[in-house]
Amino acid sequence: MQDDQTKGFSTRAIHHGYAPMSADGALTPPLHLTSTFAFETAEQGGARFAGEAPGHIYTRISNPTTELLEQRMASLENGEAAVAMASGMGAITSVLWSFLRAGDELITDKTLYGCTFSFFQHGLSRFGITVTHVDLTNPLALETAISDQTKVVYFETPANPNMRLVDIAAISAIARRHGAKTVVDNTYATPVQTRPIEHGADVVVHSATKYLGGHGDLIAGIAVGSAENMGEVRMVGVKDMTGAVLAPFNAMLILRGLKTLELRVERHAESAQQVASMLEAHPSIAKVHYPGLASFDQHELAQRQMNGFGGMIAFELKGGYSAGIAMMNRLTLIRRAVSLGDAETLIQHPASMTHSTYSREEREAHGISEGLVRISVGLEQIEDILEDLHQALGTNESAAA
Q: The whole model's pTM is what?
């Protein structure tokens, strides 16, 4: 079919960028397992290296299979171009090494994935880059903090693990006025539910390991933005700085995952809404953090910015840390594992697992309590998920014991 940005989301996720008759009628796009590419002439090779002619040179730079994935992700995020990388952290590091230099400032939100936090605090800061944490849920806080040295404003929405939201349009407008790029981690929401570029962001990053792949069988990352920005990420961030090259086989697996992305995300969100409502009504639960609940502090922003509320929930038991650990250990269907967006429902304890790179004092300052539990609601029958949670939570008294 002819590529057409007016076609529906799932239609583009299945068809965009590929015509079967270009590959002998193969309905599934070919997997190109090659490290290098031959040139018809020496002159053609020189022209490709000089950027004067299109075509592939070496899979560290580009590959037909990963290129198709990049085209589809750019379409789904409504960006001009994309770069696929070996991991979510590969995407984040490649993007930031492309746009930051010694003496620059990165402003970031107070709540971040643990490895992102560690890269900012223990990686970027070693190379003369100032990292400033600001409460980006309040745009006025950014207006106060931003300076001529600020080159990138970075945040997650919803944030990992406590689900706080950031107003993408408001923050992006402030950053743009000051000449800074806005980079948004859209892993939790996916382009099904939020497309940050449409709200003014410059670059979107994903851990494609999660919902985009969807089956827990790969590690990958993706960045989407303008053709100019993605050219910089490809030729500087990936090629020269990180080498975080995605294997074509994993690109093929993500292409497969994209075909069912919209259906899966809708099911994840539908089940998560029921799980969040059950948890909120349970006597053992002190607090539930889920954008789809009317009690969620930023519910109005979620309604305005998101098309659905996702499959991720954070909650705290009245018995705190010990009650949360005891509850997790009583689960029989739900798996105790990090990551998210898989078919399986997964549960983990951020303070001791994904966010253990923070000190206890840092977690407290950044809104990550010791008793917080994070659940990625999977695709099992919702009745079975709820039954397992009910038996594991028990009564308020037993959960607090």
A: 0.94
